[in-house]
Design brief:
The protein is an alpha+beta fold. Bound molecules: manganese (II) ion (MN) (2 copies).
């Protein structure tokens, strides 16, 4: 429990710090490396590579190795980050627009949807009731929720575990129950309300724990990945910083080809509608605690 409280506090501080860096012309890579280093400084570890998903990119865009993109005036930016302390993960996200004030309602749609859910959270709430609140709140703001992105239960060293928390009424009438850690993350869009797979993200996780490789450098890198990240996502950037980019490229390509790791695709809104997201992690028990407040 103590680790969860610490994890949530670090996530919250890193999110605020990251938010302060979201300015016109800021280098995405620089913002994210600063956020991830802040997490480490505060005594946590990134639970996954932090994301800055812009405009119609809904999720899973973490700056790549040598990424040269900069924030532009009018961009809608989602900062999504995860922290773990001894495997106790918290996950949180915030949306802002860069230098303009044209999409306040879109940003408020996801934010208010999460606030409405929070007011109603208790161990007896049904899974689809959460979805209904999210969907209707976003609709009231004039937008649609993204149906194929969801909140999720969290387990030790597993970001997406067990229960799925929908952003619409998925007819799951199971109660949330007690002693649950769940992340709730409404996504609002002016588009279709569906995401499709986009470009490869350079973010990976281990999917085959048994298989191994012959090449010794690749084997060393796999050993490092398994010890350092276990079942958690990691990125080429982190491997290149630890070893070098040449070794990282060779190893990650080989491991992906062998089916030992898988690469996540970016997730983009199908109609290229702008997307906002707000996320907090909650402990649901007799008392409900927002860990990432
Ligand atoms: Mn997240
Ligand atoms: Mn999440």
């Amino acid at each position: 429990m103590e680790d969860y409280l610490k994890s949530g506090k670090i996530a919250s501080q890193a999110r605020s710090y990251g938010f302060s860096l979201l300015k016109e012309n800021a280098l995405l890579l620089d913002v994210i490396e600063k956020v991830e280093n802040k997490i480490r400084e505060l005594g946590g570890k990134p639970a996954f590579p932090a994301d800055l998903s812009i405009n119609y990119i809904a999720a899973h865009d973490s700056p790549k190795y040598n990424d040269d993109r900069r924030l532009k005036k009018g961009d809608i930016v989602k900062l999504d980050l995860g922290v773990h302390v001894n495997g106790k993960i918290t996950d949180t996200a915030i949306t802002t627009e860069i230098g303009t004030n044209n999409h306040k309602k879109l940003i408020e749609a996801s934010k208010n949807a999460l606030m409405e859910v929070e007011k109603n959270l208790n161990p007896k709430i049904k899974v689809n009731e959460i979805g209904k609140i999210i969907e209707s709140t976003i609709k009231k703001h004039g937008f649609v929720s993204i149906k194929n992105l969801s909140g999720h239960e969290i387990d030790d060293y597993v970001v997406h575990a067990g229960l799925l928390i929908p952003n619409y009424d998925n007819h799951n009438e199971d109660e949330i129950g007690k002693k649950k850690i769940i992340a709730i993350e409404p996504f609002a869009t002016e588009g279709d309300g569906m995401v499709i797979e986009g470009k490869p993200s350079e973010v990976y996780s281990v999917v085959n724990d048994i298989k191994t490789v012959r090449d010794s450098s690749t084997r060393d890198i796999l050993k490092f990945i398994k010890e350092e990240y276990r079942t958690l996502p990691f990125c080429k950037r982190w491997i290149a910083n630890k070893f070098n980019i040449l070794k990282a490229n060779i190893a990650l390509n080989a491991l992906e080809k062998e089916g030992i790791i898988k690469q996540y695709p970016q997730l983009v809104e199908r109609a290229r509608g702008l997307v906002s997201q707000t996320e907090h992690t909650f402990l649901i028990d007799d008392e409900v605690i927002c860990l990432t407040k």
